Amino acid sequence: MFVYNHKQSEWRELAAMKTARAMFGAVVHNGKIVVAGGVNEEGLTAASEVYDFGTNKWETFTDFPQERSSVNLLSNEGALYAVGGFTIIQNDNKEVVPAEVTDVWQYEEDKKEWSGMLREMRYAAGSSCVSLRLNAAKMTKL
């Protein structure tokens, strides 16, 4: 991993992840970087790790329940969530094929485990989260 110092216009190398991977989910959660899933030389992985800025070290984190790539991680008000991604499944013809998954998981800090929240979202559905305060008294009428 590298960090960029914009004041000095230079990159500096930091500790490498324990499991080399691409196409993983990453988020800053409680002041640390959490990564989950991805693809390595052996295929999909469920391995998860957490990076501590203070020690410049990666530590193992609770593995995601399913090997997958392109999982979206987000942190909100101290909670960690994982949404969607791609996995490998066996179809009706017994062929192993990649498949998009649209589930939502939450990491439970006290139990140190991932729990499923939503099994499937509607196809082509979308969502956004914006934090702002509206003053209805100052809004113009439509």
UniProtKB/TrEMBL annotation:
UniProt source species: Salvelinus namaycush (Lake trout)
One Pfam family hit: Kelch_1
Alphabetized SMART domains for the sequence: Kelch
Gene3D superfamilies: Kelch-type beta propeller (2.120.10.80)
Protein name per UniProt: Kelch-like protein 41b
Gene that encodes the chain: LOC120033222
InterPro entries from the UniProt entry: Kelch-typ_b-propeller, Kelch_1
Keywords associated with the record: Kelch repeat, Repeat
Keyword presence, Repeat: yes
SUPFAM superfamilies assigned to the protein according to its UniProt record, in alphabetical order: Kelch motif
